[in-house]
Amino acid sequence: MRLVPAVLLSPAILLLAAATPLEDPPMRGFTPESARIQREWEAKFKAIPDPARMREAMRRLSLRPHHLGSAYGKENAEWLAAQFSSYGWEARVERFDVLFPTPRIRVLELVAPTKFTARLEEPIVKEDPSTSQRAEQLPTYNAYSGEGDVTAPLVYVNYGVPADYEQLERRGISVKGAIVIARYGGSWRGIKPKVAYEHGAVGALIYSDPRDDGFAEGETYPNGPYRPKDGVQRGSVLDMPTYPGDPLTPGVGSSPGATRLDRKDAETIMKIPVLPISYADAQPLLAALTGPIAPPAWRGGLPITYRLGPGPAQVHLKLEFDWKQAPLYNVIATLKGSTYPDEWVIRGNHHDGWVNGAEDPISGMVAELEEARALGELVKQGWRPKRTIVYAAWDGEEPSLLGSTEWVEEHMSDMRSKGVFYLNSDGNGRGFLYAGGSHSLERFVTEAANEVIDPESNVSVAQRARAAATIAGNTEARDRKDLRLDALGSGSDFTPFLQHAGVPTLNIGFGGEDGGGIYHSIYDTFAWYTRFSDSSFVYGRALAQLAGTMVMRVANADVLPEEFGNLTETTRGYLKEITTLRETTAKEVEELNRQLADGMFAAANDPRNPLQPPKAQATVPHVNFAPLQNATDSLARSADRFEKAYGGLASGPVNAAALAQVNALLRQTDQMLLIPEGLPKRAWYRHSLYAPGLYTGYGVKTMPGVREAIEQKNWQQADEQIGKLSAALMRESDLIARAARLLEQATNTRPIP
């Protein structure tokens, strides 16, 4: 998954950005002498990544379909391991066995009031030979759908998120016993059948509406980059907000001999049949609906009147799957650290795709490969990382973050004791820098991004990102000292590292100027990418330069490059949000109950679209946020003390042994933020600040335990989660204070009175 801003920069903004000097930039975590040596090696590194090599690597890796369990997927893993070895890395292929269903039967028919049989196939494009590899392509389907043979009325549910069902309920429309049709967007795809099932639906269809993903955006493939009428978005619908990875081995690595659940006991597999379809197949189904006209915001781009149903439209949906164990091949390459071999700096991108997967994921994988080659060249010239560097090419990301999750679960003790940093990418494109992750790394990201040049604007990628955010209306972007990182939800391989193991994490990539609609289709090919995305691979080089710089800096830092003032600021912002959420909820409930008491909710006058009155709600109680406020204040004091002690790194000799103790603590900063027993209803997710939302999927919920309890009006749970979050923040504050004391000793900095 890549989330990037889609804006264009004015010449004036670029000129303002270019006016910012780059002389003598700071380098977080280094003494002045160490920084001088580091910068010399970084200059050599950044000259090595070669766009032409990335182009040829993409051609090789995306030549044939390479989904999990495919022959070419295994060939790619073996080829990648050989490439890493040729660069001087110790490389191996690590296998896991995972449940991966593939379709046996797919039937979708409109049986009344007219007959229509869905095509369920993406046409070959004669201009793109890769689209003709029928024998190796996975068909269009949703992995981990339920099975079934159902015939039922059809109901249109917009994006199929909880708020949409609230609107349907007010209109007196039930989906119980129905098949729902939802459009992609508004949430992660797996949320749509989950919510449909909770409301009694017996099947679900998900289609790509052209207003969101098709001709409304521009010319469709092959004439342009956007999704054609028969294009289909494959994808997993496993309930990843509960837990990702192999559904049969939650919490443990799915090594060949692992104990597995019975499939019927795997709670993350969907309970009803789910099928993705094109907008060409969706149009006859939607056109057959009667009933109320859909609200304006629910109307897509098809030339029909969007109606809700139910009506005469009856649909037959039949799905059966081959539920097999598939071999999964992670490629793990290692450069052993010279000083701290048991501290791991980990970099990853997945190598499996739904079909040929040139953009997703190979555009990111080829950048990682060039980073590894460049680092290998530096080793030949005499450079050595102080910490061990681990480069990973994950398999099975597309079905449910399988490769990375199983690897983290298998190596959990190593993650706790050795995991220093995880850097993720997941595809790449042309445009602006996107960065998300642990907020203690904002300064680190800003400094590294200030030293990589954007290939089109000739300013730093940090400056261009600021300009893009300013144009998009972010008023703080130009003046804030550091780039603001997005909080991470889910959707890529960072999830197990950050939200389960508590390893400080970043997710980066470029995009925003290469709009397209070939995601998870047979049209995500080398031909599409080289025509419509980063055709010269200069943003692939920029990604390699930035990611490699980050890896080198963490691997060789005298002090791990975290800064906690931004973490404190962000935490205070989240606290303000959840406080406001409680206040807003209380006002809304009070106003709703007042209106009900005054009889203000009569049915609408339009008999075709009657609105049912909402139900009265219990008064919102007082919520005590004081423990969170106190914990945040303590975090601020510790962050301030640490930063003052950090200033001594530039002023004189340092005690290496004491710095090692500081780093031993800093490795645990995100671990301190874990809730040992996990979040409500999903113990696998343990981070107190970041998690995918139960009903957003990829979308993040910050301070998730408290926030979702308030959203669900579960006030007892809100109080409990405030206590657990406050305890996590206090653990973090205490660790930072201890690190500050050690850093004062290491740098002979006078402690705060």
Task: List its traits.
753 residues, alpha/beta, Aminopeptidase, Glucose Oxidase, domain 1, Transcription Elongation Factor S-II, Chain A, 3 domains, twelve-stranded mixed beta sheet, two-stranded parallel sheet, 23 helices, 16 strands, 38% helix, 16% strand, globular, disordered N terminus
Kindly summarize this structure in a few lines.
The chain is 38% helix and 16% strand. The chain is α/β, with parallel strands linked by helices and 753 residues long.
Give the name of the CATH architecture of the largest domain.
3-Layer(aba) Sandwich
Major β-sheet, in short?
12 strands, mixed
- How much beta, percentage-wise? 15-25%
Count of β-strands: 16
Shape call: globular
Tally of domains: 3
Give the fraction of residues assigned to helices: 25-40%
Amino-to-carboxy terminus distance: 47 Å
Classify the secondary structure makeup into a structural class. alpha/beta
What would you report as the Rg, rounded to the nearest angstrom? 26 Å
What does this structure look like?
It is a single chain. With 753 residues, the protein is α/β, with parallel strands linked by helices. It folds into 3 domains: 11-98 and 326-556, 3-Layer(aba) Sandwich (Aminopeptidase); 99-324, Glucose Oxidase, domain 1; 565-747, Up-down Bundle (Transcription Elongation Factor S-II, Chain A). The chain is built from 23 helices and 16 strands. The protein has helices spanning 11-18, 32-46, 51-61, 71-86, 162-170, 191-198, 210-213, 279-287, 358-380, 397-400, 402-410, 412-418, 442-449, 461-471, 494-500, 526-532, 538-556, 565-597, 626-646, 656-666, 669-672, 704-711, 715-747, and strands at 90-112, 116-117, 142-143, 148-156, 179-183, 203-207, 235-236, 274-277, 314-335, 340-350, 387-394, 419-424, 431-437, 505-512, 690-692, 700-702. The strands form 3 sheets. Strands 1, 2, 4, 5, 6, 8, 9, 10, 11, 12, 13 and 14 form a 12-stranded mixed sheet that branches. The chain has a two-stranded parallel ribbon with strand order 3-7. Helix 5 links the parallel strand 4 and strand 5. The longest helix is centred in the last third of the chain and has 33 residues, at 565-597. Residues 1-22 have low confidence and may be disordered.
